[in-house]
Design goal:
alpha+beta, about 40% helix, about 10% strand
Length: about 160
């Protein structure tokens, strides 16, 4: 049984709600055309800094010692965070690095690995992703922590 009471709570019937939704959808579809704006407005902007892709490809084939040297000379902070795992180099940051640092890492041939939360460089050893942790299979070390051993003391000539 229907009642004829007025609804003072501000609620609308289903048909009124449906017509309101249709009107809102029509307005959003025609708004960009009226304002002369393209549909690209909803697309995410690419804020990445430019990278020389040819130099990046060349850098990705460099051996580990050369990449470490480039890293030390161009990004010393990243060098002190670098870990060599097998022949690959991983760089981890506690927070997201600045856009310029990310651009320089990419220029040097590093790529972001979301699973390991590290910037990785293949050092010419390209492999598909591994299910296991590479630490279990390969030796790893932090090059910044390795100190060159002091030369052996020469015995005094008598």
């Amino acid at each position: 049984m229907k009642t004829n009471k007025q609804n003072n709570s501000g609620l609308k019937s289903q048909s009124e709600q449906f017509s309101t939704i249709k009107d809102q959808q029509a307005e959003t579809q025609t708004a960009p055309a009226q304002n002369g704006q393209a549909a690209t407005e909803t697309e995410k902007k690419d804020n990445r800094l430019p990278i020389d892709s040819e130099a990046r490809k060349k850098n990705r084939t460099l051996p580990t010692p050369k990449v470490l040297n480039l890293l030390l000379n161009s990004l010393p902070d990243a060098y002190y965070r670098a870990e060599v795992v097998g022949k690959w180099i991983w760089v981890r940051f506690t927070e997201q690095p600045a856009a310029q640092i990310r651009q320089q890492l990419a220029q040097l041939g590093f790529h972001w690995n979301r699973e390991r939360q590290a910037w990785q460089h293949p050092c010419g050893n390209f492999r598909l992703s591994s299910e296991n942790d590479p630490h279990e299979r390969y030796e790893s070390y932090f090059p910044a922590r390795i100190r060159k051993s002091a030369p052996a003391a020469q015995p005094a000539a008598a």
